[in-house]
């Protein structure tokens, strides 16, 4: 089902459907009760050059021979390969161009998921940023918010900056990092002052300890004190070691090294010969042992037994050595042991004045020597480390004398003690410093107590900032929860606290720039954008579309020719030829079909345009005779009249408008009475189809050349769903809708309103005289008034030959091939008609002076009256003139009245609206329109960010600019008012914004819109978002150039205007 409101291209849509079906080899039956509807569709088919495949039969009264000849002409059709190739190339070229154009439109309209904006709005929003900031870390922090949430967040974020700006030095304020529960109190101030005092005390203590170390080691750095403190402890040496310093003043460390080595060597030899020494009795005479060593140095045998010396030495040996090994090694070892002991004793005497050693007490001797070696080694190590770590003062003292050494050792102990004390002070200071963790979250890692004291002092001085920060923190926590942001305060401290500009500018600029970069870099279509290329594509599309439109006509014929030559039933050709040649007694179509020509006739002319009655008279009652049946003006087709036609088809398309005239029994009787109340609204095919089948609404309105002519019906009956192009004037300007209040006009049921009829007829003839190249129609609200107008015309032409000539010319007026002659009809019979100028006569009025206006306006004030009014109010293409003999305010139009009798109220509102438009009372006219509920296009309209920015820039340049021009679903983004005639628009501006994105087809977006606007008198300039984003100033200059060419408008007194003046001078 196709809902076709007035002027929505219903007939053209039907012709397009028929052409499509014919191209696919389908048989089509087009049905309408009204002959004008059949003629309109046939004439449109003729305009498309496809009428040769159609049969138009109004009734059984037709020239049968000519009809059959037209069938025979079709039998000569033959396909053309060249035409088929050209059609294929045209289609391919058009599809390619549309694909490219739609790719750019799709790329702009696509939504960026991260920002929630269309790509176009995103690009334009980025261009609005005055300063460009890109902080990637900021983007990652807020990347979960879309643009709308960023905007809402920015409002709160800006308040935080305003709060914190009250801090004297925000970026250095220690309270920026305060703990949430820390607020300014006297106790807090007391604790902070105590903390500062502790650091000051620590400073004094450390100074005192440093003085002790300086006195001991000299004035050196703390690092050297630390190194001295690392020296291994070495106790003071007793005085017996003084000899060591006395003998080794020149090189104590070398002497120590030599002494240690000597002691170790002597001790080693002592250990080596210990067993030999111990094998000799303790009180042995060393000389005897020596003699035995010499005697046994040679081997002794049996011969020596006879020597007295042998036996004497043997006795001596047995006395001093009870366990002899048979050699002299025990005696030699004894000697070497004593020599080593003597050497040790001498060495000991060299550094220790109180040495007491016993040669027979080996263990004690060894222990003492090892002790001395260890002590000397410690002294050597101490002196070695001291050489690296001690100050010169301490080093000289240590090496100078035993007393100096012992003083140095004592000094080291003092330094170590001082360092320990300093460490304790530092630990306490660190413990106190850690107390700041109770107050702030980001405690600085200061180690110097003077810096710490200064920092705490700054905290004390900036306590007033704490109150500000507390308020800011409360706001921060609120918006952290609201916008799901982690550690916003940390982000502020890291990225925003040092920023001098508005934080919101940094945030929005960063988000928009990164979003836009992501979009453009990821989309080749946007990256390759060029205004010249897009304009070239649009021009190419328009040319290709026109060529394709013309080529489609030939394609329909080629499709027929291919079917006819490849597979056809030619059996009926002889019969058709014979009947075509007859001069009389020619068989009727029904008869020739019954004789066997039906199949051939259906193949040669697969489209039949007929009324329900002629279908029943001519076509056989054969099920599925047609593939599809199309009902036009279905709201006026009774169900019982349609059933026989429906039976003959496989598929049905119902076209009509349930807001227009229904089938009724009104005026069907022999006597016509405008006051008759007893009439029925009978169900139509459209009514029943709307209950079962899905429907499509034809939204675009083409008929009315002025928006004011369709605006009322659009709002009152279609909820604003129709799309009608506005005019380059305010809706109330231009004179397209005029209300004429007739004085002293009275209505009687016998003769109608004769005064109104006479005034109307005089005006009608004057209009015909002034504009003879227009078509005219007169609609009366009742039959009595229609009769009164006819009588007034008869009187006029009877007495005025010039009026008769004008009248006859108007009656014979043609609009191309279509009859567009003057008519006078009552509103029941006007559906389907259209004329350039419609004159509407209300007729109804008080019956006599002083009489009250009856709220009875015939069928207009009864059920279904609104549908009749809709038909009458939408017949005009250029002008509508309403004649009425009473003030429209006489009919109540409030909501209470509407609820009681909506049809009457709608009629009253229409008269009020007509008068408001005629009086150029735009406010009242819009109030009337807005009194009806709206839906569809109008309810969703709002200016895009792009259009609003263009508007702002143009207004800065001195122009008056209106947005969203239109009130009937068709909107122009911006209109620049004429500087003198403020109700007119000098230039319309289309942005590739909401309208561009919401129009899915290139044909609607880039061809029909522009064609409609030009037909309404608009001059249109288009601005592309990417051009605007790159260089909006150049685009403004281009718009100014376009304005200069419209009506000698002077350049504005602005910087851009000055540039234009220079350009004009050069040209």
TrEMBL record:
It comes from the Bacteria. InterPro entries: DNA2/NAM7-like, DNA2/NAM7-like_C, DNA2/NAM7_AAA_11, P-loop_NTPase, Restrct_endonuc-II-like, Restrct_endonuc-II-like_dom, SF1_C_Upf1. GO terms for molecular function: helicase activity. Residues 946-1043 form the Restriction endonuclease type II-like domain. It holds the Pfam family AAA_11. Residues 1-110 form the DNA2/NAM7 helicase helicase domain. This is Superfamily I DNA and RNA helicases and helicase subunits. Residues 694-885 form the DNA2/NAM7 helicase-like C-terminal domain.
């Amino acid at each position: 089902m196709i809902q076709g409101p007035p002027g929505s291209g219903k007939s053209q849509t039907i012709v397009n459907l028929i052409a499509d079906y014919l191209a696919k080899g389908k048989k089509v039956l087009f049905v309408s009760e009204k002959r004008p509807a059949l003629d309109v569709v046939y004439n449109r088919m003729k305009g498309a050059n496809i009428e040769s495949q159609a049969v138009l039969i109004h009734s059984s009264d037709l020239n049968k021979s000519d009809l059959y000849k037209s069938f025979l002409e079709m039998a000569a059709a033959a396909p053309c390969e060249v035409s088929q190739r050209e059609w294929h190339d045209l289609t391919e070229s058009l599809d390619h161009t549309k694909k490219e154009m739609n790719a750019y439109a799709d790329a702009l309209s696509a939504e960026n998921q991260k920002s929630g904006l269309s790509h176009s709005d995103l690009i334009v929003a980025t261009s609005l940023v005055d300063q460009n900031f890109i902080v990637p870390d900021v983007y990652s922090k807020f990347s979960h918010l879309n643009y709308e949430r960023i905007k809402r967040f920015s409002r709160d974020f800006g308040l935080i900056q305003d709060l914190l700006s009250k801090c004297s030095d925000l970026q250095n304020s220690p309270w920026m990092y305060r703990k949430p529960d820390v607020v300014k109190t006297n106790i807090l101030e007391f604790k902070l002052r105590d903390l500062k005092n502790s650091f000051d005390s620590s400073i004094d203590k450390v100074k005192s300890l440093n003085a002790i170390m300086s006195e001991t080691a000299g004035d050196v750095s703390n690092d050297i004190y630390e190194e001295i403190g690392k020296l291994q402890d070495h106790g003071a040496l007793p005085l017996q070691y003084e000899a060591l310093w006395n003998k080794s003043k020149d090189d104590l460390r070398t002497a120590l090294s030599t002494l240690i080595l000597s002691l170790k060597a002597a001790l080693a030899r002592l250990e080596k010969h210990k067993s030999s020494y111990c094998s000799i009795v303790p009180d042995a005479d060393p000389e005897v042992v020596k003699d035995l060593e010499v005697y046994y140095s040679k081997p002794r045998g049996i011969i020596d037994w006879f020597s007295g010396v042998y036996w004497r030495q043997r006795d001596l040996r047995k006395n001093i050595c009870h366990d002899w090994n048979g050699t002299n090694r025990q005696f030699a070892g004894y000697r070497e042991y004593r020599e080593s002991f003597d050497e040790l004793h001498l060495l000991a005497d060299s550094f220790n004045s109180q040495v007491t050693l016993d040669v027979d007490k080996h263990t004690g001797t060894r222990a003492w020597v090892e002790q001395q070696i260890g002590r000397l080694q410690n002294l050597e190590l101490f002196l070695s480390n001291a050489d690296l770590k001690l100050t010169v003062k301490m080093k000289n003292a240590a090496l100078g004398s035993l007393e100096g050494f012992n003083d140095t050792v004592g000094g080291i102990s003092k330094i170590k003690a001082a360092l320990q004390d300093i460490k304790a002070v530092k630990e306490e200071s660190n413990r106190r410093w850690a107390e700041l963790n109770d107050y702030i979250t980001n405690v600085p890692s200061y180690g110097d107590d003077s810096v710490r004291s200064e920092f705490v002092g700054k905290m004390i001085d900036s306590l007033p900032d704490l109150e500000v920060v507390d308020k800011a923190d409360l706001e921060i926590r609120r918006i952290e929860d609201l916008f799901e942001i982690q550690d916003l305060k940390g982000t502020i401290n890291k990225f925003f606290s040092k920023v001098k500009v508005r934080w919101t500018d940094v945030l929005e600029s960063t988000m928009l720039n990164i979003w836009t970069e992501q979009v453009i870099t990821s989309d080749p279509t946007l990256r390759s954008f060029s205004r010249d290329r897009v304009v070239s594509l649009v021009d190419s599309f328009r040319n290709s579309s026109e060529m394709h439109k013309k080529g489609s006509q030939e394609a329909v014929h080629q499709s027929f020719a291919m079917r006819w030559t490849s597979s056809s039933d030619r059996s009926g050709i002889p019969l058709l030829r014979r009947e075509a040649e007859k001069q009389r007694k020619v068989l009727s179509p029904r008869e020739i079909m019954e004789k066997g020509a039906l199949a051939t006739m259906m193949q040669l002319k697969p489209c039949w345009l007929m009324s329900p009655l002629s279908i029943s008279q001519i076509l056989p009652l054969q099920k599925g005779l047609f593939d599809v049946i199309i009902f036009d003006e279905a709201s006026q087709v009774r169900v019982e009249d349609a059933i026989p036609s429906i039976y003959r088809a496989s598929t049905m398309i119902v076209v009509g408008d349930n807001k227009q005239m229904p089938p009724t029994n009104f005026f069907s009787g022999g006597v016509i009475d405008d006051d008759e109340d007893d009439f029925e609204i009978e169900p139509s095919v459209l009514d029943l189809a709307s209950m079962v089948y899905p429907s499509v609404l034809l939204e675009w309105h083409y008929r009315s050349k002025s928006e004011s002519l369709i605006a009322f019906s659009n709002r009152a009956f279609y909820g604003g769903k129709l799309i009608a192009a506005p005019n380059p004037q305010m809706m109330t300007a231009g004179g397209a809708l005029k209300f004429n209040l007739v004085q002293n006009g009275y209505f009687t049921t016998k003769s109608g309103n004769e005064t109104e009829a006479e005034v109307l007829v005089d005006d009608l003839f004057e209009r015909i005289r002034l504009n003879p190249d227009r078509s005219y129609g007169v609609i009366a609200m009742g039959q009595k008034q229609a009769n009164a107008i006819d009588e007034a015309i008869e009187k006029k032409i009877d007495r005025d030959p010039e009026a008769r000539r004008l009248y006859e010319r108007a009656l014979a007026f043609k609009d191309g091939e279509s009859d567009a002659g003057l008519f006078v009809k009552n509103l029941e019979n006007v559906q389907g008609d259209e004329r350039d100028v419609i004159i509407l006569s209300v007729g109804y009025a008080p019956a006599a002076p002083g009489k009250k206006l009856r709220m009875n306006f015939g069928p207009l004030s009864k059920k279904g009256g609104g549908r009749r009014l809709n038909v009458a109010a939408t017949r005009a293409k250029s002008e509508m003139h309403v004649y009425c003999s009473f003030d429209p305010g006489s009919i109540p139009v409030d909501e209470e009245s509407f609820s009681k009798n909506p049809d009457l109220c709608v009629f009253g509102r229409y008269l009020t609206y007509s008068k408001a438009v005629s009086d150029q009372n735009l406010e009242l006219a819009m109030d009337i329109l807005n009194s009806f509920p709206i839906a569809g296009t109008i309810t969703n309209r709002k200016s895009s960010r792009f259009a609003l920015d263009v508007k702002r820039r143009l207004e800065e340049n001195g122009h008056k600019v209106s947005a969203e021009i239109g009130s009937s679903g068709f909107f122009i983004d911006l209109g620049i008012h004429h500087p003198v005639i403020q109700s007119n628009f000098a230039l319309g501006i289309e942005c590739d914004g909401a309208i561009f994105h919401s129009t899915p087809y290139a044909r609607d977006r880039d061809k029909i819109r522009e064609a409609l606007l030009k037909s309404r008198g608009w001059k249109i300039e288009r601005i592309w978002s990417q051009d605007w984003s790159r260089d909006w100033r150049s685009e403004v200059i281009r718009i100014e150039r376009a304005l200069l060419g419209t009506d000698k408008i002077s350049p504005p007194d602005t910087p851009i205007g000055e540039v234009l003046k220079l350009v004009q001078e050069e040209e």
